Amino acid sequence: xxxxxxxxxxxxxxxxxxxxxxxxxxxxxxxxxxxxxxxxxxxxx
Length: 45
What we know:
- The chain is built from one helix and no strands.
- By secondary structure, the chain is mainly α.
């Protein structure tokens, strides 16, 4: 069992590169959306 298959992603195939890339993409998009929302809320952009 690899180290990537031990955290909260406890399912078979959690250490596949496609799954890891998809998870990373979701996280980066979420962070970007939050930053854009914060900037729009703070400034009249």
